[in-house]
From TrEMBL:
Full protein name: Methyltransferase small domain-containing protein
Pfam annotation, one family: Methyltransf_16
Classification via Gene3D superfamilies: Vaccinia Virus protein VP39
Molecular function GO terms recorded: S-adenosylmethionine-dependent methyltransferase activity
Organism of provenance: Trichomonascus ciferrii
Domain of life: Eukaryota
Length: 322
Protein backbone atom coordinates (compact mmCIF):
# COMPACT_ATOMS: atom_id res chain seq x y z
CA UNK A 1 0.00 0.00 0.00
CA UNK A 2 1.07 3.58 -0.60
CA UNK A 3 1.07 5.54 2.66
CA UNK A 4 1.01 9.34 2.75
CA UNK A 5 2.86 11.43 5.32
CA UNK A 6 0.28 14.06 6.32
CA UNK A 7 0.04 17.23 8.35
CA UNK A 8 -2.75 16.96 10.92
CA UNK A 9 -1.60 20.36 12.14
CA UNK A 10 0.48 22.46 9.77
CA UNK A 11 3.74 23.97 11.06
CA UNK A 12 3.45 26.92 13.41
CA UNK A 13 6.10 28.97 15.20
CA UNK A 14 6.31 30.66 18.59
CA UNK A 15 9.11 32.70 20.11
CA UNK A 16 11.55 30.69 22.23
CA UNK A 17 14.65 31.50 24.28
CA UNK A 18 17.11 31.76 21.39
CA UNK A 19 14.88 31.77 18.35
CA UNK A 20 11.56 30.27 17.29
CA UNK A 21 10.10 26.87 18.16
CA UNK A 22 8.47 25.31 15.10
CA UNK A 23 5.88 22.63 15.80
CA UNK A 24 3.71 20.37 13.66
CA UNK A 25 1.59 17.23 14.03
CA UNK A 26 1.94 14.47 11.44
CA UNK A 27 0.25 11.23 10.54
CA UNK A 28 0.89 8.28 8.23
CA UNK A 29 -2.23 7.10 6.40
CA UNK A 30 -3.65 5.81 3.14
CA UNK A 31 -4.84 8.29 0.51
CA UNK A 32 -8.29 8.75 2.08
CA UNK A 33 -6.85 9.18 5.57
CA UNK A 34 -9.04 6.42 7.02
CA UNK A 35 -6.36 3.73 7.50
CA UNK A 36 -3.15 4.25 9.48
CA UNK A 37 0.19 2.54 8.93
CA UNK A 38 0.41 -0.30 11.44
CA UNK A 39 4.12 -0.78 11.89
CA UNK A 40 7.44 0.65 13.03
CA UNK A 41 9.41 3.27 11.14
CA UNK A 42 11.54 6.35 11.62
CA UNK A 43 10.20 9.61 10.26
CA UNK A 44 12.85 12.21 9.39
CA UNK A 45 11.72 15.81 9.81
CA UNK A 46 13.77 18.77 8.62
CA UNK A 47 12.92 22.31 9.77
CA UNK A 48 14.49 24.95 7.55
CA UNK A 49 18.28 24.72 7.55
CA UNK A 50 18.39 22.82 10.85
CA UNK A 51 19.80 19.34 11.05
CA UNK A 52 16.91 16.85 10.55
CA UNK A 53 15.41 15.16 13.58
CA UNK A 54 13.87 11.70 13.94
CA UNK A 55 10.55 10.66 15.43
CA UNK A 56 9.50 7.04 15.98
CA UNK A 57 6.24 5.74 14.55
CA UNK A 58 4.85 2.68 16.35
CA UNK A 59 1.98 0.25 15.65
CA UNK A 60 -1.36 1.69 16.73
CA UNK A 61 -0.27 5.33 16.48
CA UNK A 62 -2.55 7.83 14.75
CA UNK A 63 -0.38 10.94 15.02
CA UNK A 64 3.02 12.15 16.13
CA UNK A 65 4.12 15.63 17.25
CA UNK A 66 7.44 17.23 16.45
CA UNK A 67 8.99 20.46 17.70
CA UNK A 68 12.37 22.02 17.00
CA UNK A 69 13.91 25.39 17.77
CA UNK A 70 15.47 27.46 15.00
CA UNK A 71 18.14 29.92 16.22
CA UNK A 72 17.55 33.50 15.15
CA UNK A 73 20.75 33.58 13.09
CA UNK A 74 19.41 30.75 10.88
CA UNK A 75 16.17 32.57 10.06
CA UNK A 76 17.18 34.35 6.87
CA UNK A 77 14.08 33.66 4.83
CA UNK A 78 10.97 31.48 4.66
CA UNK A 79 11.18 28.20 6.61
CA UNK A 80 9.94 24.96 5.06
CA UNK A 81 9.26 21.78 7.05
CA UNK A 82 9.96 18.51 5.21
CA UNK A 83 8.99 15.04 6.39
CA UNK A 84 9.75 11.60 4.99
CA UNK A 85 9.85 7.99 6.13
CA UNK A 86 13.28 6.37 6.18
CA UNK A 87 12.32 3.23 4.31
CA UNK A 88 15.22 1.13 5.61
CA UNK A 89 13.66 1.45 9.10
CA UNK A 90 10.20 0.15 8.14
CA UNK A 91 8.70 -2.95 9.71
CA UNK A 92 5.07 -3.48 8.70
CA UNK A 93 3.34 -5.73 11.25
CA UNK A 94 0.30 -6.25 9.01
CA UNK A 95 2.64 -7.36 6.25
CA UNK A 96 3.86 -10.14 8.53
CA UNK A 97 0.28 -11.21 9.21
CA UNK A 98 -1.20 -10.87 5.72
CA UNK A 99 1.84 -11.21 3.44
CA UNK A 100 1.27 -7.79 1.90
CA UNK A 101 3.54 -6.58 -0.88
CA UNK A 102 6.17 -3.95 -0.18
CA UNK A 103 4.76 -0.57 0.86
CA UNK A 104 5.58 2.89 -0.42
CA UNK A 105 5.74 6.14 1.55
CA UNK A 106 4.87 9.52 0.06
CA UNK A 107 6.88 12.41 1.61
CA UNK A 108 5.70 15.99 1.92
CA UNK A 109 6.79 19.56 2.57
CA UNK A 110 4.97 22.50 4.10
CA UNK A 111 4.21 25.79 2.47
CA UNK A 112 6.86 28.38 3.48
CA UNK A 113 6.61 29.78 7.00
CA UNK A 114 7.83 33.38 6.79
CA UNK A 115 8.83 33.91 10.42
CA UNK A 116 10.91 36.99 9.59
CA UNK A 117 7.69 38.72 8.45
CA UNK A 118 5.65 37.55 11.47
CA UNK A 119 3.95 34.72 9.55
CA UNK A 120 3.85 32.21 12.40
CA UNK A 121 1.55 29.56 10.89
CA UNK A 122 1.89 28.08 7.42
CA UNK A 123 -0.91 27.79 4.89
CA UNK A 124 -3.10 24.72 5.43
CA UNK A 125 -1.58 22.98 2.46
CA UNK A 126 1.04 20.33 1.79
CA UNK A 127 3.49 20.19 -1.11
CA UNK A 128 4.33 16.92 -2.89
CA UNK A 129 7.21 16.57 -5.34
CA UNK A 130 6.80 13.78 -7.88
CA UNK A 131 9.42 12.76 -10.44
CA UNK A 132 8.65 10.62 -13.48
CA UNK A 133 12.25 9.98 -14.50
CA UNK A 134 11.72 8.04 -17.73
CA UNK A 135 9.45 10.76 -19.10
CA UNK A 136 11.69 13.56 -17.80
CA UNK A 137 8.77 15.14 -15.94
CA UNK A 138 8.96 16.65 -12.46
CA UNK A 139 5.82 17.98 -10.79
CA UNK A 140 5.28 19.98 -7.64
CA UNK A 141 1.71 19.44 -6.46
CA UNK A 142 -0.07 21.24 -3.65
CA UNK A 143 -2.96 19.65 -1.77
CA UNK A 144 -5.00 20.93 1.15
CA UNK A 145 -4.78 19.42 4.63
CA UNK A 146 -8.52 19.64 5.31
CA UNK A 147 -11.33 17.17 4.66
CA UNK A 148 -12.31 18.07 1.07
CA UNK A 149 -11.80 14.98 -1.11
CA UNK A 150 -11.50 17.17 -4.21
CA UNK A 151 -8.37 18.83 -2.85
CA UNK A 152 -6.24 15.76 -2.08
CA UNK A 153 -3.97 13.60 -4.22
CA UNK A 154 -5.34 10.10 -4.67
CA UNK A 155 -3.49 6.86 -5.41
CA UNK A 156 -5.23 6.24 -8.73
CA UNK A 157 -3.68 9.44 -10.10
CA UNK A 158 -0.28 9.11 -8.41
CA UNK A 159 0.35 5.49 -9.35
CA UNK A 160 -1.58 5.62 -12.62
CA UNK A 161 0.74 8.40 -13.81
CA UNK A 162 3.80 6.34 -12.84
CA UNK A 163 2.55 3.44 -14.93
CA UNK A 164 1.51 5.55 -17.93
CA UNK A 165 4.67 7.68 -18.05
CA UNK A 166 7.25 5.13 -16.92
CA UNK A 167 6.06 1.93 -18.65
CA UNK A 168 3.18 3.05 -20.95
CA UNK A 169 1.20 -0.22 -20.88
CA UNK A 170 -1.60 1.19 -23.08
CA UNK A 171 0.45 2.78 -25.88
CA UNK A 172 -0.10 6.52 -25.51
CA UNK A 173 -0.78 8.56 -28.67
CA UNK A 174 2.10 10.47 -30.27
CA UNK A 175 0.60 13.97 -30.29
CA UNK A 176 -3.08 14.38 -29.39
CA UNK A 177 -4.44 17.85 -30.14
CA UNK A 178 -7.14 17.98 -27.46
CA UNK A 179 -6.94 16.28 -24.03
CA UNK A 180 -9.70 16.38 -21.41
CA UNK A 181 -9.54 15.33 -17.77
CA UNK A 182 -12.75 14.62 -15.86
CA UNK A 183 -12.74 14.92 -12.06
CA UNK A 184 -9.32 16.58 -12.05
CA UNK A 185 -9.19 17.48 -8.34
CA UNK A 186 -5.70 18.88 -7.68
CA UNK A 187 -4.85 18.37 -11.35
CA UNK A 188 -2.01 15.83 -11.23
CA UNK A 189 -3.01 13.84 -14.32
CA UNK A 190 -3.90 16.80 -16.53
CA UNK A 191 -0.81 18.79 -15.55
CA UNK A 192 1.42 15.76 -16.14
CA UNK A 193 -0.05 15.24 -19.60
CA UNK A 194 0.28 18.97 -20.36
CA UNK A 195 4.00 18.64 -19.67
CA UNK A 196 4.24 15.45 -21.72
CA UNK A 197 2.34 16.94 -24.68
CA UNK A 198 3.44 20.56 -24.72
CA UNK A 199 1.66 21.32 -28.01
CA UNK A 200 -1.67 19.86 -26.89
CA UNK A 201 -4.65 21.76 -25.57
CA UNK A 202 -5.31 20.25 -22.12
CA UNK A 203 -8.51 21.06 -20.20
CA UNK A 204 -8.88 19.96 -16.58
CA UNK A 205 -12.48 19.84 -15.37
CA UNK A 206 -14.19 19.43 -12.01
CA UNK A 207 -16.77 21.15 -9.85
CA UNK A 208 -16.08 24.65 -8.50
CA UNK A 209 -14.82 23.20 -5.19
CA UNK A 210 -11.61 22.12 -6.95
CA UNK A 211 -11.09 25.26 -9.04
CA UNK A 212 -8.78 27.19 -6.71
CA UNK A 213 -6.38 24.31 -5.93
CA UNK A 214 -6.31 23.12 -9.54
CA UNK A 215 -5.55 26.58 -10.94
CA UNK A 216 -2.88 27.03 -8.25
CA UNK A 217 -1.14 23.83 -9.38
CA UNK A 218 -1.39 24.73 -13.06
CA UNK A 219 0.35 28.04 -12.34
CA UNK A 220 2.88 26.40 -9.99
CA UNK A 221 3.96 23.92 -12.68
CA UNK A 222 4.04 26.52 -15.47
CA UNK A 223 1.95 24.68 -18.05
CA UNK A 224 0.53 27.37 -20.37
CA UNK A 225 -1.21 24.76 -22.53
CA UNK A 226 -3.43 23.66 -19.60
CA UNK A 227 -6.48 25.37 -18.14
CA UNK A 228 -9.25 24.62 -15.64
CA UNK A 229 -12.91 24.54 -16.66
CA UNK A 230 -15.79 23.98 -14.26
CA UNK A 231 -17.88 21.07 -15.54
CA UNK A 232 -20.88 19.45 -13.89
CA UNK A 233 -21.45 15.90 -15.17
CA UNK A 234 -25.22 16.45 -14.99
CA UNK A 235 -25.10 19.35 -17.47
CA UNK A 236 -24.52 19.52 -21.21
CA UNK A 237 -21.85 22.23 -21.31
CA UNK A 238 -21.17 22.88 -25.00
CA UNK A 239 -17.73 24.32 -24.27
CA UNK A 240 -16.77 20.81 -23.19
CA UNK A 241 -19.06 18.48 -25.12
CA UNK A 242 -18.64 20.10 -28.57
CA UNK A 243 -14.85 19.60 -28.70
CA UNK A 244 -13.43 16.66 -30.67
CA UNK A 245 -11.38 15.21 -27.81
CA UNK A 246 -8.54 12.91 -28.82
CA UNK A 247 -7.91 11.67 -25.28
CA UNK A 248 -10.08 11.71 -22.15
CA UNK A 249 -8.54 10.89 -18.76
CA UNK A 250 -10.36 9.77 -15.60
CA UNK A 251 -8.86 8.60 -12.29
CA UNK A 252 -10.44 7.76 -8.94
CA UNK A 253 -13.86 9.01 -9.99
CA UNK A 254 -16.13 6.11 -8.98
CA UNK A 255 -15.81 6.10 -5.19
CA UNK A 256 -19.39 7.44 -4.94
CA UNK A 257 -21.99 5.16 -6.53
CA UNK A 258 -24.56 7.98 -6.55
CA UNK A 259 -22.54 9.65 -9.33
CA UNK A 260 -22.34 6.68 -11.72
CA UNK A 261 -25.23 7.68 -13.97
CA UNK A 262 -23.98 11.27 -14.19
CA UNK A 263 -20.43 10.14 -15.04
CA UNK A 264 -21.64 7.72 -17.73
CA UNK A 265 -23.74 10.56 -19.15
CA UNK A 266 -20.75 12.91 -19.20
CA UNK A 267 -18.52 10.29 -20.83
CA UNK A 268 -21.15 9.71 -23.51
CA UNK A 269 -21.57 13.43 -24.24
CA UNK A 270 -17.84 14.11 -24.63
CA UNK A 271 -17.23 10.96 -26.70
CA UNK A 272 -16.61 10.99 -30.43
CA UNK A 273 -15.93 7.84 -32.49
CA UNK A 274 -12.18 8.59 -32.46
CA UNK A 275 -11.92 9.50 -28.75
CA UNK A 276 -9.69 7.30 -26.57
CA UNK A 277 -10.58 7.04 -22.89
CA UNK A 278 -8.03 6.02 -20.25
CA UNK A 279 -9.17 5.38 -16.69
CA UNK A 280 -7.01 4.82 -13.61
CA UNK A 281 -8.88 2.96 -10.88
CA UNK A 282 -8.06 1.90 -7.32
CA UNK A 283 -10.58 -0.65 -6.05
CA UNK A 284 -12.36 0.61 -2.92
CA UNK A 285 -15.73 -1.19 -2.61
CA UNK A 286 -17.88 -3.88 -4.25
CA UNK A 287 -20.48 -1.45 -5.63
CA UNK A 288 -17.93 -0.28 -8.21
CA UNK A 289 -18.96 -3.28 -10.32
CA UNK A 290 -22.23 -1.41 -11.04
CA UNK A 291 -20.27 1.34 -12.79
CA UNK A 292 -18.52 -1.09 -15.13
CA UNK A 293 -21.84 -2.76 -15.94
CA UNK A 294 -23.20 0.64 -17.00
CA UNK A 295 -19.98 1.48 -18.84
CA UNK A 296 -20.20 -1.70 -20.92
CA UNK A 297 -23.64 -0.71 -22.18
CA UNK A 298 -22.27 2.29 -24.10
CA UNK A 299 -18.52 1.68 -24.40
CA UNK A 300 -16.17 -1.10 -25.47
CA UNK A 301 -13.21 -1.85 -23.21
CA UNK A 302 -10.16 -2.31 -25.44
CA UNK A 303 -7.44 -2.68 -22.82
CA UNK A 304 -7.62 -3.65 -19.15
CA UNK A 305 -4.48 -4.13 -17.05
CA UNK A 306 -3.92 -4.32 -13.30
CA UNK A 307 -0.44 -3.13 -12.34
CA UNK A 308 1.17 -2.88 -8.92
CA UNK A 309 3.53 -0.21 -7.68
CA UNK A 310 4.41 0.57 -4.05
CA UNK A 311 2.43 -2.54 -3.15
CA UNK A 312 -0.77 -0.91 -4.45
CA UNK A 313 -2.68 -2.47 -7.38
CA UNK A 314 -4.06 0.05 -9.86
CA UNK A 315 -6.26 -0.88 -12.78
CA UNK A 316 -5.70 0.94 -16.10
CA UNK A 317 -8.69 0.64 -18.42
CA UNK A 318 -8.88 1.90 -21.98
CA UNK A 319 -12.25 2.14 -23.74
CA UNK A 320 -14.03 3.75 -26.66
CA UNK A 321 -17.58 4.53 -27.75
CA UNK A 322 -19.53 1.57 -29.17
Amino acid sequence: MLYHVRFLKVPSARRGNKGYNVKCVLSLTNDLGDEFFYGDCDMEIAVGQNRPGIVKWKPGMRSVSYEQEIPMYKIKGPVVVRARVLENTVKDHLQDLENHAENGFFPLSSEPLNIAKDMTISEKRAVREINYKKAGISLKMVEETGESIAKHLWDGAIIGMYELLEDDPVGLPKQPRHILELGAGCGLIGIGFAQLYKRSNVVLTDLDDAEEICKYNIKLNQVPNAKFKEFDWNEDDQEVTSVNWDLVLITDCIYNDDSYAALIGALTRVAKPSTRFIMGHKHRHQDEAKFFTQLNEKFTITNDKTLTRFGQPIRLIEFKLK
